[in-house]
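Table S2 (text version). Query chain:
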Amino acid sequence: AIFFLETDDPQKREKLVEYLMKSPGYSSHMSNWVFDLLRVTDRPANGRATLEPYRDWVRTAMADNMPWDEFTRKLLASSGDGWDPESAAVGYYVRDRGMPLDNLSNTMRIFLGARMECAQCHDDPFGTTERMDFYELAAFTHGQHEMRQRYMEPLWRELSDDERRNSREYRVARLLWDKVYGLSLSGGGDGRIDLPSDYQYR
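Corresponding structure-token output:
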């Protein structure tokens, strides 16, 4: 602080800001902020696939000062193998796999500043969002699946009985899924989602 105050350089403020924004502390702070925003945790997604490559991708994006519009586009349009640094953003969807309604609620809140979660149950009485709007948007990502899911399905069927769940084969298959196959996304959703049984606006 004393060095800054005693320096006569007219560009000292700009240089200090540039120095601070390139510091590891700034990168760490921004990464933690984005982790909170995107609900990224140390625990595996849904108790299964690891999210560490996704966490690394977010850290790198913050360290490189990736523009927010590019960051958003890479997250929302992500697909591919999560172990590939170019497509590790699939962790955004893997984190909520099997929960397209939760993913949509958070996507709308984070990137549009709109709280749509109430529209899961009823039309918005104070706005223009209808319950059907919510489900139409959720259909975009509903039905997403892992790239190599077809390789694992026969093995899961074979190992599904209670007796084999304690076997070495099951543990190896679980490890393969958790560490290799689970962190991937084969394109978008199927564009269809069933309306809930209590849908009241028919």
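Notes on Table S2: The chain has a mean pLDDT of 86. The longest helix spans residues 24-38.
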